Amino acid sequence: MLIRIIYTLLLALASPILLFGLYKSKPNKPKFGKRWKEHFGFTPKLESIERPIWIHAVSVGESIAAIPLIKALKKQKPEQPILVTTTTSTGAEQIAKLGDLVEHRYMPIDFAFAVKGFLKATKPKQMLIIETELWPNTLNAVHKANIPINVVNARLSEKSYNNYAKVQPLFNLLIPCIDKVLCQTQSDAERFERLGVEKNKLFVTGSIKFDIQISEEVKEKGKALRTELGHDRPVWIAASTHKGEDEQVLEAHKQILESQPNALLILVPRHPERFDNVFELCQKQGFDTIRRTSQSMVTESNQVYLGDTMGEMLVLMGAADICFMGGSLVGDKVGGHNIIEPLALSIPVLSGPSYYNFQEIVDTYIEQGFVTIVQKETLETEVLRLLNRQTNTSLSAIKITNSPIQATIYHLIQREQ
């Protein structure tokens, strides 16, 4: 109890800074508008009178990961209402694409009064947390309301394990509240067990991001974009780049242009609020740059194509020959992003040395020759190597025999209330 009080006091002191970052206006970032009150538990009631399954996906990445699971749950039980919460407005923007399939509300901040107000308005029957977004007061309030809590697609890198271990007494408060932890890998499960989660709560279901199915519509859009960009020119994509990484990618592209003067880089920053800054960076460094949102005709003189839209990553990847996955050349700040999407599109992948968030997945495909690890100094060399392959054999799209989504659903409905 004392630990929870101390935590709540510290959160109260830190919350103005956290909320300032959340609400700060940034270019290309959707506004919260009057809905900011939902973060404080002033949550509008749901349209359905039936108790919903509540899925929490904090931001864009988790929201995108949750979409296939949501569709699978609705396919299994079309009448079951689903409530999705996000913390960020960019995450909300992704969920809005599901239309009437779900209802969306903003996640209350981790104060008991806010969470209780949310629960009173929504009355969920079950809570699913995508990946590892664990807040002590939220879990405590949900558990006290007798609502099962399941962590889905859970991952815990060694770095995250060490961080949690530093606040082990606080993490110990979370463990009794959680019913199941559905882990991506056996290593994730072992790290959760080392933190004290009981073995009977741990299940390895695989990553639901493996269940990606590329629709024919997306494939056709990718082909159409490639036609627009130019079939005969080499095209590579730097996907989900972070601050400090764009400069490294552009430096590599500058060297690539010396050998391949008609090469085109599709540059896609991870966060929409950086689109304008990255565009200015490209121009400042002398690249002939065109933005996707400009809807202008791409010409042979264009050297960088800035992917400044949300939710189109698969289309952009589908137009490229090679994918460099961002978040992997900025030290240990990020730990990489998921490589499954480009591999599912049969595109070879380059990654920087920091990919601890997807360690086992990346290591598996390194062994199979589908992923190559690069340093800042070797990015240009590896891109050129792949572009200049005599036999440009495409990779076989990833096929998963045992569906992680179906395995996840199986464990969720075993004790569904």
Biggest sheet details: 7 strands, parallel
| Percentage beta strand | 5-15%
Low-confidence sequence ranges: none
Query: What is the number of helices?
Result: 16
**What is the terminal-to-terminal distance?**
29 Å
Task: Name the CATH architecture of the largest domain.
Answer: 3-Layer(aba) Sandwich
Our count of domains comes out at 2
| Shape field | globular
Q: Taking strands numbered 1, 2, ... along the chain, how are they ordered across the largest sheet?
A: 3-2-1-4-5-6-7
How much helix is in the residues? 40-55%
Rg result:
22 Å
The ordered H/E elements are HEHEHEHEHEHHEHEHEHEHEEHEHEHEHH
DSSP E strands, number = 14
Supply the CATH superfamily name of the largest domain: 3-Deoxy-D-manno-octulosonic-acid transferase, N-terminal domain
Tell me briefly what this model is.
Helix content is 40%, strand content 14%. The chain is of the alpha/beta class and 417 residues long.
Describe the structure.
The chain is α/β, with parallel strands linked by helices and 417 residues long. The protein folds into two domains: 29-212 and 404-413, Rossmann fold (3-Layer(aba) Sandwich); 216-387, Glycogen Phosphorylase B (Rossmann fold), CATH 3.40.50.2000. It has helices at 2-23, 60-76, 89-95, 112-122, 136-144, 158-166, 168-174, 186-194, 216-229, 246-259, 275-284, 313-318, 340-344, 359-367, 379-387, 404-413; strands spanning 53-56, 82-86, 103-106, 126-130, 149-154, 180-183, 202-204, 235-241, 264-269, 289-291, 304-306, 322-325, 349-351, 371-373. A seven-stranded parallel beta sheet has the order 3-2-1-4-5-6-7, with helices on both faces. Strands 10-11-9-8-12-13-14 form a seven-stranded parallel beta sheet. The longest helix has 22 residues, at 2-23. The model has no long low-confidence stretch (mean pLDDT 91).
